[in-house]
Amino acid sequence: MKQLWAPWRMEFITSDKKSGGCVFCDLPKETQDKKNLIIHRATKVFVILNKFPYNLGHMMVVPFEHTHEFNKLSTEQLVEMTSEAQKVVDVLSEVYKPDGFNMGMNLGQAAGAGIKDHLHWHVVPRWNGDTNFMPVLGETKGMPEHLQTCFEKCFEVYRRKK
Ligand SMILES: [Zn+2]
């Protein structure tokens, strides 16, 4: 896989690691899903737009339970994660018509997990040539606007997939 170069992720590296809390535990406890970019709450997992995306539409499916142990997830959790991930692909396909997807988990710091204590399943849409395109997007400093627009579009379509 060709690596995307996402300069706005520097903000993540320099800003989001200060507090001792866990962002995947803290955000669902709040009641500001729109501000927090939470697209959907299922029973065992939730779907959230990545604030520091590798690409437009980068979402994560996250269990509510604070765990880093993939092999200890219950069948219920696994089934729900998979079906929500499927829905994410479905929604992103409709909204952005990507050419492909990267999907997966980075388990542990050595594997590149940004938040290693609370596992999360990434769904990253890919377009032919996006490794050239995305740095340009990043430099426009447009990511926050893109995020809000992206949230609204995907939120709408997600509702329809019920
Ligand atoms: Zn957590």
Give an account of the 3D structure.
By secondary structure, the protein is α+β, with helices and mostly antiparallel strands. The chain has helices spanning 9-15, 23-29, 33-36, 75-96, 130-139, 143-160; strands at 38-41, 45-49, 59-63, 100-104, 121-126. Strand 1 (38-41) and strand 2 form a beta hairpin. The longest helix has 22 residues, at 75-96. The protein is globular and about 35 Å long. The model is unreliable at 136-142 (pLDDT under 50). Zinc ion (ZN) binds next to helix 2. Zinc ion binds at residues 22, 24-25, 66, 118.
Known CATH architecture: 2-Layer Sandwich
Order of helices and strands: HHHEEEHEEHH
Estimated radius of gyration: 15 Å
Hetero compounds: zinc ion
Number of strands: 5
CATH class: Alpha Beta
Question: Mean pLDDT, as a whole number?
Answer: 85
Describe the main β-sheet briefly: 5 strands, antiparallel
Describe the strand arrangement of the main beta sheet, using strand numbers: 1-2-3-5-4
Content-based structural category: alpha+beta
* Distance between the amino and carboxyl termini: 32 Å
Number of helices: 6
